[in-house]
Amino acid sequence: MKSSWLPVFLLTPLCFAQDSSTIRIWHGETRHAGRIGDAQDDFNITGHVERWQELDLLSYRVNGGLTVPLAYRAFRRLARDGDFNADVPLGLLRPGRNTVDIEARFRNGATARKQVVVIRESGAAPLPRVIRWRQTGHVDDAGQPVDGEWLLTPQGLRTAQPGYDRIFLIGDRRWRDYEVLTTVTIHTVESDTPPESGGNGVGLLLRFAGHVTGGPRHFPSGQPKWGYQPFGAIGWLRWKKAGRSSAPMIQFYRGDSDQTAEFGSLPAEPGSSFGLRFACRTLADEPGGMGVTEYRFRIWKLPGSEPQQWTWVQVQSSPHALRLGGFALLAHHVDATFGDVEVRTLTPQGGR
């Protein structure tokens, strides 16, 4: 009589477990959403997956719910192949402890998982506000890293790796009229950028409430979303795509279109530091629903003293540009460190 025995491995479906270190979560595996208020509708969990060339599916699930696919090829908010950015809706997070599972499935049947614990809080961000990076224990104590990886260093908050719109969002989406003071040190400016980036830039973004799908400019959907307008306005140093070796322009960037205004240039070699002061103040509406905001921007090279005059003042009229929202430290294809931050409320009569 022949034996019916077969090797166990022929009777059991093949399943390979991939080392969880294949998935790297930036900013830690315990996070705090809303610790200092809600600045946008999503909470971002960012990281990088190795062996992305062999992926069949990268996804996330909140509290064991529906599986949401994640993009992992370089495009706009994803600086490198293998990077991911989960736009987790705040509405899916219950008060207290939540779990967000990041899962990578590979074509050979292997899987890798990392779990992030997200503590949903209902904090607030009253003004005035001062952030001392040396006294900040975790990035969630100061704001929200929306894109890329950010590092707390003795000198300030630094981009771990340059890329498209590295954004660190601070404040509350109910903020209205305020003034931000900080510094920025430029380490490197990327020598090449993709066509959609339009060059390099570093500075401040006022009244930002998160990326969107649709909106006035009809941005397509995505995970992560990449619709970047409407916002309030940007004040920054901007390198033209064709001339990154030259001095960057001092630029005002509208919150409802890609229209800009430039106010001369400022030499910015690697290691250069600058002071930044940026203010937004709501003015009376114009007929037809046109919201009006005055933006004032000042930039000066350190260790020099802050000048009395504004570098530029712009009055923006728009039916779409935001007139509420927190602000973002913004490094676009620039490796930069931002210094301590001070924010104060503006009176109806305006700022300094």
What does this entry look like structurally?
The chain is mainly beta. It folds into two domains: 17-120, Immunoglobulin-like (Sandwich); 129-345, Exo-inulinase, domain 1 (Jelly Rolls, Sandwich). 1% of the residues lie in helices and 47% in strands. It contains one helix and 25 strands. The protein has one helix spanning 8-11; strands spanning 16-17, 23-25, 30-33, 42-49, 55-62, 68-69, 83-89, 96-106, 110-120, 129-131, 144-145, 150-153, 156-159, 166-170, 178-189, 200-208, 233-239, 249-254, 260-265, 273-286, 290-301, 312-318, 326-332, 334-338, 341-345. The strands form four sheets. Strands 10, 12, 13, 15, 20, 21, 22, 24 and 25 form a nine-stranded antiparallel β-sheet that branches. The chain has a seven-stranded antiparallel β-sheet with strand order 11-14-23-16-17-18-19, with no helix packed on it. Strands 1, 3, 5, 6, 8 and 9 form a six-stranded mixed β-sheet that branches. A hairpin with a 5-residue loop joins strand 18 and strand 19 (260-265). The longest helix has 4 residues, at 8-11. The chain is globular, with a radius of gyration of 22 Å. Mean pLDDT is 92; it is low at 1-15.
